[in-house]
Amino acid sequence: MTRISTLLLASAALLVAGCGGDDDVNSGSGSGYGGGTAAQSGEADSEKATSEEQAPGTTIKVGTSQYGQVLFGPKDGAIYYFDKEQGSSGECYAACAEAWPPVLTEGKPQAGPSVKQSLLGTSKRDDGTTQVTYGGHPLYYYVDDPPGEVLCHNVVEFGGLWLAVDPSGDPVS
What we know:
Elements: H1 2-17, H2 42-54, E1 56-65, E2 68-72, E3 80-82, H3 95-99, E4 104-105, E5 108-111, E6 120-124, E7 130-134, E8 137-138, E9 155-157, E10 160-164
Parallel strand pairs: 1-5
Antiparallel strand pairs: 1-2, 3-10, 4-7, 6-7, 7-8, 9-10
């Protein structure tokens, strides 16, 4: 009985947490998310660049949600765009990136059906990892979204609005 009570309490805590978090945390540059390390020599950088160009990267696909057709990652995680970011470089680091992990790739991002390859791109993060962009905007997941579900669309957090992305690269309205 104690184990069931503990599980119910933990589930209730997760539901209360929802999409929100501590909005007081600065989302500026920090330790970053992903744990990648920078190469130590120019030769290693060159080898890494060559392997990234040849290796297939993260596949972005389209799925159906309560908001219509939206982008999803390879494990069916809903993809979001952070309206605070005006360019292709991500500004979500530290606590922000823990709640909203960047969509990362180790090669050229791949377009699934109904995704425009011409809109896919990448940008380097401060920690040396490569973040997927779509239509020039960095892409993110929400850490607690279950696969195939869009639960955190139109959420204000970390100084901006988080929005699901449609196949044309626009935020869902």
